[in-house]
Amino acid sequence: MRYFAQFRAGLGELVIDALRRDLRSVKVVSSDGSSLIFDAGTDPSTIGNLGYLKNAFSVLGMIRRCSAQRAAEQFAEQVLSTPMLRRQGRTSFRTMVSVDGRLLGLPRPAKTRLESAIAKATGARPSPRGGGVEYWLIGRRDVESMLFCQRLTTGIKPGAAGSLGADLAMLLVMASDPRPDDVFLDPFAGSGSIVRARMALPYGRATYSDLAAGAPYLQVPSAIRRRARVTVLAEDALELPSISSGSVSSIVTDPPWGEYDRLDVDFAAFARRMMASFDRVLQPRRGRLVLLLSRRAAEVTRGLWPSANLRLVQSHQLLVNGHSASAQIGGRLPRVG
Ligand SMILES: C[S@@+](CC[C@H](N)C(=O)[O-])C[C@H]1O[C@@H](n2cnc3c(N)ncnc32)[C@H](O)[C@@H]1O
């Protein structure tokens, strides 16, 4: 099946990687900074539940790029003359139009023609207030086609102020190759967005730790405090005294970048101690690490992976709230001999 997905600008590399991990036979047809068209051998309900996509649609039809009015007329004909809506249930629906990122209204005759065709093909009734199926006519600046789509998602919820956002947190977790028996740690957990994303998938144990946990400005969310097999700590990530050596299988974390948050030492010294601490707590054979850093901080940590007995496998360039950032992904070095 063909799908159209929108995501937060700047997360494209991580999104494509996550889709390749989550879905069967993914083939990217086209992509721009905040959306992509792809084919996948996975059913629409699975795509609709991917927490890191802002919006996902199944593509029911594609025609050459033209005006929204002309597209509505052509899709109305296709709806009546082809089985494209064959499997749609009898429920209410509404139609929406988005061209080059702007919501548009269709001229009344074209809208009526499209909605009458959908009603005839499906037996469903138009309901302009929504609540039923949404059919979208979509045009994108860099795509030579107009798409006729069914919406699969209701959109991601924004995270707490200063937190990463549920979509990016989930993408970072997916990049860590999560496993059901993982002993997971976020040692700079802040609002807990990464821990929450990790708890949404099967895990063995999880630890939330942040030096400021419990401070008036950083209360640990009850969804984390009350969860089974989750430990909450307020420890220095450079020491982690409660965590035994070699006990953690996966760290996914967003440390201070040394640019927007003050550190007592320079970032290079901080990063050296952080990587030594991660080397101590990560399992010697299976340990995996995903770091989110500013582009500048990532230049510093890049050279520190080998000395922490870790291999940096991939670096993805991202935009996080308009700031250039990198996601560094890797794990223990393969054993020789
Ligand atoms: C960039 S924020 C993490 C934000 C988090 N990912 C979120 O979504 O809310 C970095 C966090 O590291 C914590 N922190 C700073 N230095 C620390 C240290 N040495 N050990 C543990 N936590 C520390 C800060 O309190 C802050 O919450």
From TrEMBL:
PANTHER family linked: THUMP DOMAIN-CONTAINING (PTHR14911), TRNA (GUANINE(6)-N2)-METHYLTRANSFERASE THUMP3 (PTHR14911:SF13)
Methyltransferase in keyword set: yes
SUPFAM superfamilies: S-adenosyl-L-methionine-dependent methyltransferases
MF term (GO), any: tRNA (guanine) methyltransferase activity
Provenance organism: Kribbella antiqua
Lineage start: Bacteria, Bacillati, Actinomycetota, Actinomycetes, Propionibacteriales
Ribosomal RNA large subunit methyltransferase K/L-like methyltransferase domain location: 161-194
The UniProt record lists the keyword Methyltransferase: yes
Swiss-Prot/TrEMBL GO biological process terms: tRNA methylation
Name of this protein: Putative RNA methylase family UPF0020
Record-linked Gene3D superfamilies: Vaccinia Virus protein VP39
